[in-house]
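Batch 3, record 17
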Amino acid sequence: MSGKTLSEKIIGEHCGREVKAGEVVIVDVDLSYVQDGTGPLTVRRMKEMGLEKAYDPQKTIFFLDHASPSPRMELSNDHEFLRDFARKTGSILSDVGNGISHHNSIEKYACPGDIIVGADSHTCTNGALGAFGTGMGSTDVAAAIALGKTWMKVPETYLVEVNGRLPKGVYSKDIILHLIGTISANGATYKALEFTGDTIKNMSTAGRSTIANMSVEAGAKAGIFPPDEETRNFLKAMGREEAFRELKSDEDAGFEKRIEIKADELEPLIACPHLVDNVKKISEIGRVKVDEVFIGTSCNGRLEDLHIAASILKGHTINPNVRVIVTPASRLVYMEALRDGTIETFMNAGALFTASGCGACDGVHLGILGDGEVCLATQPRNFKGRMGDPDSFIYLGNPAVAAATALTGEISDPREVM
Amino acid sequence: MGKAWKFGDSISTDLIAPGRYFHLRSNLPELAKHVLEPARPEFASQVHAGDFVVAGENFGLGSSREHAPTIIKIAGVKAVLARSFARIFYRNCINIGLPAITCNTEEIEEGDELELDMQKGVVRNRTKGTELEFPPLPPIMNRILEEGGLVAFIKAHKNLEI
Ligand code: SF4
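Prediction for the assembled complex:
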C-alpha cells in the first residue's frame, strides 16, 4: 500500500481510521469560524436547525472583520447580532479592530495538523501552518459549530515543488499567480495543493500564507505547507511553540500530479481584470494608469508585506494622481508597524493607513472604487465589481509592485525603483 | 417547465451577490432584487418561477457567501445548470436545496424551454426536442438534497451521517 499525503494523514487522524483520496468521511473539526458577512446567516441556520449551542465554544470564533468598524446601520445591527450570539454561546468574539479572521487564526488559534472550517473561502490560508483549512458556506459551518463535525471528500493532492532563489522584486505572490495563470482558476478544483521545494523551505510563514490564501483562486480545497522549523519559530514568536508538531507526506504518497516551478525564472506578475487567472508578466502589460493602490488583506497585509512596500516608499512621495491605502491584516501587525516606524514611512510618503480588517478588498468601505477607476491591489481577487463598482478595474500584484505603482501613478516594475 | 437564461464562463459570486449590497445580507428578499445584476441587469426583474440559470465553466467561483445560491433560489430559479461549478458554491447549492446540475450546456440556447427530471438524471430541452444526461450526485449530497437541504437533514437526524 502506498504512503499517505499530508491531507490524507490529517483527515485520517480526524476520523479515527486510515483514509485514501476519494473517500467521503465525517471528521472532527478543531476550529470553526465565521466572519461578519457570513456569520449572521450561520447563526440563523443554527436556529433553524434547533441547535443554538456551540459544540465547543472555545473552538468557535466570530470575527468582525469585513466591515470593521461598521460603515452603516444594517451592518452595525449584524455586528450586534453576532456579539450577542457569541456571548450567549460563550464563543470567542474577535471584535472590530482585531483584523482579518485568517491572519488572526494563524497568529493565535490554528495548529499544524488541525482541521479548520471557516465560512470564508480564504480559510485555506491556515495551510501556511500545516493545518487543513477549508472554506465552506454558512450552513455547513453552522453544522460544524453545533456538532463539532463536518463531512468531506478526501482530496487528491497536487504536489507543487518550487526550487531556486526568488529574483529581486519577485515574491511569494508571484509564485501563486504563476501557478494560477498556468493551471487556471479551476485547475485544482476539489484538490489539495501541497507546497514543497527549497524556495518554500526558505520562505517565511507570511510568504507561505500568501500562497495558501490564493490556493482557492485555483479552485483548491486546501493549500498546505508541511510544518517545519520555520513553523516552529513562527509559533514560538506567537508564544505558542507547544502547538508545533512535525508532519509531512510519505515519500511514496500518491500524488495525482506534480508541478514544478523554477523560482529564479519568475518575474513580477499581474492578474489583469476581471479574473485572477488572467495573469501577465509586468513587462507585457503596457502603460496602465491607476487611481488607487491598495496594500493589505488576508493575502498580503502582513508585516513583511508592509516592510516590502515601505522600503520602496521610504524617503519618497507618492504620485499626486493616486491614493494609496494601507490596511494591516491584524492588530498585532498594526502594533508592530507602529513600533518599528513603518506607519510613519507610509504617512510621510503621503499614503493613508487604516484600522486592521478586510478594508477595501470586499467593496464595503475604506476605498471603494468609482466608475472607470483603476486599482492596483495586493488582494487575492479582481472579479468585476469586487471593490464595489462593476465599472471599475482591478489589477493584482505583489507589495513591491504596489509601492512602485504608488510612486509613478501607473503599474510599474519594482525592479526599476529598488 | 421553465426558460433558460444563458450566462458565460466564470460567473463569480461577486456577479451573483455583489459586495456593494453587503449591507442587505440580512435582508435576503431585498438582496435577491440584485441577483446577477452586474452580469445581466434585467435578470432579477424578468426571471419567472421555474426558470433555469444556464452557464459555462466554473460557475460560482469566489467567495463562500451562501447568499449567492440562496438569492438565486429566492428569485424562483428551479436549478442551475453549468459545465462545471466552483467547489464551495456547489456544496452551498445542495445545502440550501437548489439543484446544481453539471452537464454539457453548450447546446442550450437563451429562452429554450427546459424540464428537469432528477430521478432519471436528465434535462429535457422541449424547444429542441433533445435530452441531456447528467451524472448522479455523490450519495451524501443526493440524500441532503432529497431531504430538502442540510438544515432539514440535521433537524431530522440530529447529526451528520453518511
Ligand atoms: S481581506 Fe479580502 S479576501 Fe481576505 S478575508 Fe477579507 S474580504 Fe476576504
